[in-house]
Each structure stands twice: as structure tokens, then as C-alpha cells.
Amino acid sequence: MWCLIGCSIGDLGTIAFFQFTGIPWPTIAIMALAIVNGILTSIALETFILKRGGMALAAAFKTAVGMSLISMVGMELAMNLTDWWLTGGARLTWWVVPIMLAAGFVAPWPYNYWRLKKWGKACH
Fold first, then answer.
1. Pairwise CA distance, residues 8 & 14, whole Å
2. CB 67 within 8 Å of CB 120
């Protein structure tokens, strides 16, 4: 869930910035930047949470990057493809955001399940 929150802050914030300012960037460029910003904000949020939980900063950062980078990429792609498919571009509307978040939440499940199973961890 923290990954989704972190990714959403950067992703939706980037799309909102371009939507509200009207800066004429190509949709693909806006979505690529949204993906990068989503990943960066997710790593920052997870690093902060792990650091607050008692980890050293370097270890918290390494853990945040290592534990969920593939999940974040999948989540970001699912969110942006959903937005593009439903709105025809990089546009936030009141009805598309919940659908984007649901797609981003569900997309990394298979990978995360496989990773947890590989390391003998259970999903609760």
C-alpha cells in the first residue's frame, strides 16, 4: 500500500501539473515523466518509513529500491495505460483516478506473490 501511495503522489502530481498549467508536452513525455516521478516519490516515502522504523538511512534506501522497483514499474505502467485508455491522454478526472489506483494496486500482485513465495513468506 505504501508503494501505491508513493507512486500516486509523484504520478498524479506530474499529470496534474501539466493538466493545470497547460504546458504543451506530448502525452508520452508527460506519462514517462509521471512514471519516473512516481517511482522516485515511492522510493523516498518507503525510505522515510523504513528509516523511521529504525533502519540506517543507507540501508533503508537500499531496501526501498530493492524490495519494490519491479512492482513500482508495473504499477506505474498500469496506472498510466489505464489513464490513456480511458481518457485518451494524460488527464485526471474525478472518475478515472479511482480506476487508475485500482489498476496500479492489482498489477504488481502476481510478481509480489511470486517474490513472497520464493522467500517463504505468506500473504496476509
1. 10
2. no
